[in-house]
Amino acid sequence: MDAFYYWRNYEQDLKAGLPGYFKSSSDKLQVLADGQPEYIWVFKTPQGRKGQLQLLGRLHWREAPTKGFRKEAGYFYIHYDAAHPTSVLFTDSGTDAALDVTTTWASRHFQQMRTANFNGVHGQEALRGQPLKELEAQARGFQRRPVVVPAQGDEVVQA
């Protein structure tokens, strides 16, 4: 199992240095975390492209929070490891063709999420079976880069 997560605050989180977790007041994130997904696939609506969906990347799920994490009462969390070698951002997933493929895929498998504009629990879902296989096949066609690019001289350890 993997997880689908609509990343509403993508640009804000990138500027803040990627916190390593997503939080929600809904227990849906806890249900997803309890399923121990291998990856969290992250999506957003591109600016000025209402009704379309972009596959941003694939983040390696992390069982435990990062050092210094502080849980807030009333929130549920799912953690990711942005520095993991398999955590990637798709660099060409914002093209018209890529947006059409991703939007069509989401419409076919997650129409209720799209209808609800990915708000709240409607932006979080388990990915299994055929929808996951199709998403993996789609992602194989995209260029990718590490989420965290190591500084020159840093050693990159392959898992």
Task: Give the SSE layout.
Elements lengths: L1 E5 L3 H6 L5 E4 L3 H7 L4 E6 L9 E9 L13 E6 L6 E3 L5 H14 L1 H5 L8 E4 L1 H12 L3 E3 L13
Parallel strand pairs: 1-3
Antiparallel strand pairs: 1-7, 2-5, 3-4, 4-5, 4-6, 6-8
Describe this entry's structure for a reader.
- This protein has 159 residues and is of the alpha+beta class.
- The chain has one domain (2-146).
- It is built from five helices and eight strands, in the order βαβαββββααβαβ.
- The chain has helices spanning 10-15, 28-34, 96-109, 111-115, 129-140, and strands at residues 2-6, 21-24, 39-44, 54-62, 76-81, 88-90, 124-127, 144-146.
- Strands 1, 2, 3, 4, 5, 6, 7 and 8 form an eight-stranded mixed beta sheet that branches.
- The longest helix is centred in the middle third of the chain and has 14 residues, at 96-109.
- It is globular, with a radius of gyration of 15 Å.
Rounded mean pLDDT score? 89
Shape descriptor reads globular
Gyration radius over CA: 15 Å
Total domain units: 1
Low-confidence stretches: 154-159
N-to-C order of helices and strands: EHEHEEEEHHEHE
Largest sheet: 8 strands, mixed
Note the beta-strand portion: 25-35%
Number of DSSP helical runs? 5
Which percent range fits the helix content? 25-40%
Q: Terminal Cα separation, in Å? A: 20 Å
Protein structure class? alpha+beta
Total beta strands = 8
Short account of what is shown:
By secondary structure, the chain is an alpha+beta fold. The chain is 28% helix and 25% strand. The C terminus is likely disordered.
